[in-house]
Design goal:
This protein is α+β, with helices and mostly antiparallel strands and 266 residues long. Helices cover 41% and strands 13% of the residues. The N terminus and C terminus are likely disordered.
Amino acid sequence: MDTLQPVSDVYRKALIQWCMSSQLFTEQSLNEAIARIYTEETAAAIELQAEVEQINGTLSVLSLQLRSAMDQRSGSRLWALVNMNADKISTGATPYTTTELAMLKALVEAVFTSADGNYAIDLHTAIRLISALGSATFGRHDAQDLIARMCADGWMEKTESGFIVVGMRALIELQSFFNDGFGDYARFCSLCKEMATSGRVCNQCDDSVHPFCADQIMQSAGSLSCPKCHKPMSDALSFGPNEAGIPHSLVASTPQPDDNGVAEID
């Protein structure tokens, strides 16, 4: 049996260029790009995570990394190519003016530190916040248009119920920004170890679980129990848009991720 030849650097460079141009893309799109760019035999034999690790090894000298985050409700995975030396809003959101960047930062902070612990604010509150930071000629319609652009670019997201939440692009590209600047507000899913801005909190050990991860546990075990302390979570409190919320002061510090974005569990 012939040994599969290593992936050519030419193919990997082409894939990296595709990632740069796509900015934010689904895992399905990434697999489809690999199938188009690589040879048929190589693409069929590739294990995605192993290939991502190879690509990131190549990108490390450029301080770049192919990074992903899971949609907390659907479980689908989105990817982006991230500048590891620019894990902050001012350099990540380059198409925005200096004033617009300040507005985006203020909106992210307001959402992430919402008093009710839901990581969400209603659209009218978001519009008032952005309008207050603009010039005398910057009105509510301008604020609404800017928020719509932030949502289209993936930095923010507008839910079906009209709440503004942190977008998937921000969760992928600004991990260090959130960990360093808002560590006291950050929650992490006890099952998948990724940041949680929506889910349920165990009333025994205060660990969090994403909605999707909670569904996975229930499908597997028949009932929901905490991945950390294994106590039933039938009466667990919920946080996220449209939820009652859990004020941050009532939730104990949750596990913080290490340099690779993985939370350390006792």
